[in-house]
Amino acid sequence: xxxxxxxxxxxxxxxxxxxxxxxxxxxxxxxxxxxxxxxxxxxxxxxxxxxxxxxxxxxxxxxxxxxxxxxxxxxxxxxxxxxxxxxxxxxxxxxxxxxxxxxxxxxxxxxxxxxxxxxxxxxxxxxxxx
Length: 130
Description:
Blueprint: E1 2-6, E2 9-11, E3 17-24, E4 31-38, E5 44-51, E6 57-59, E7 67-72, E8 77-82, E9 91-99, H1 105-113, E10 119-120, E11 124-128
Parallel strand pairs: 2-11
Antiparallel strand pairs: 1-3, 3-8, 4-5, 4-9, 5-6, 7-8, 9-10, 9-11
């Protein structure tokens, strides 16, 4: 049972990357999935999350309009499309899941924002630099 994140790399400001998070050993149905990031010297923060049961999505203000989370149910994979990347997006990006029992959109947003998800994959490094 694991989450495998991939797709990180180095890109110039303004560029794009797509991260993938593939679950193995379990189905993502019934879980919320999030992309979280940790920049050097900073705490972990939620970038974006998606709920498979309620259909909620949430984006941090810092990525809204530039990042898009999506899910391919057949591939048991969640993607993070990152466009218009900025140097401040440089971080290790993690995907994580949590049972989709938040009870309300507000609780979902709080858990996403606090990176309060229970099962984590390894990270993938994204570096945005000229």
